[in-house]
Amino acid sequence: MDLTHRPRRLRRDGVRGLVSETSLSASDLVAPVFVDATTDERQPIESMPGHERVPLDDAVARVEEVLETGVEAVILFGIPESKDEVGSRAYADDGVVQEATRRITGETDAYVITDVCLCEYTSHGHCGVVEDHAADDPDLTVDNDETLDLLAETAVSHAEAGAEMVAPSSMTDGMVAAIREALDDAGFSDIPIMSYAAKYESAFYGPFRDAADGAPAFGDRRHYQMDPANRREAGREVALDVEQGADVLMVKPALPYLDIVSDVRREFDRPVAAYNVSGEYAMLHAAAEQGWLDLDAVARESLLSIKRAGADLIITYFAEDVAESL
Ligand code: PBG
After folding, report:
1. What is the spatial distance between Cα 278 and Cα 280, in angstroms, rounded to a whole number?
2. Of 44, 174, 220, 242, which one's alpha carbon is 20 to 30 angstroms from that of 50?
3. For Zn(2+), which residues are the binding ones (predicted)?
4. ipTM
């Protein structure tokens, strides 16, 4: 054959690495850590093999394990000792995340990001204050504007405890502006906000809701998280967060939403984060347990693909395993 172009020429070892367009590094990864105020012992998370909820006294040790793999950043989620209608333990100075943050930033070099939301802290499990309606009222929803102050208070309490970045995940309209203003007023103008800017109402969060005990007691999150059918709407959501001062823009979930990651990369000049969520982790593990997939290989390929689509950083339950294999 007289072929002018033979793309295979550049696929051999030796040159392959030289022309590779994307690379993965431990410094791109953020490991989620669950701190549980209701237990004295580590509790395995059944639907997320290899992950545990750790008691406060183990928070530092858990983060040290992460650091040993080369991963330098963690995002903290808390399971509080008690819940109420208004999620008081989310913004309590001695709350589980505040206490864990104080210890971790005091004793390790990890970069500590905190998830700012109310769903793990409210008795009804919604990401904000619920309107005064009967629980079976089909119109019942989260009161957007009432929730803003509580999110702002939560973010400030995390910063006071030493959090280096806050990540609001409740999809409350105006949350970035409210948090930015509150942080600035409290003297934290140097703390960046990573907004869960395009967060979809996804069934892939199932294992996380077991892990963090944050499933809604009634209804679902359709009235505040985005409809998986919508692509252009993500552009509008992200633009609002940029206007309000978001420093990093997150798309969540990651793998089923790579078109959105790619759009945000192209349309906005801000760092892009992608959250490779609990269900994405659980399904690869389940298939690997059956012997149907090579876990290391598919985990690495997943993260590489998320970067190729345009993510600068990835929050992933695979962080430690992949960092170790790099
Ligand atoms: C809190 C929050 C959720 C996740 C991250 N922050 C749950 C949700 O929105 O239901 C999901 C993460 C995952 O599935 O790994 N709002």
Report:
1. 5
2. 220
3. 117, 119, 127
4. 0.95
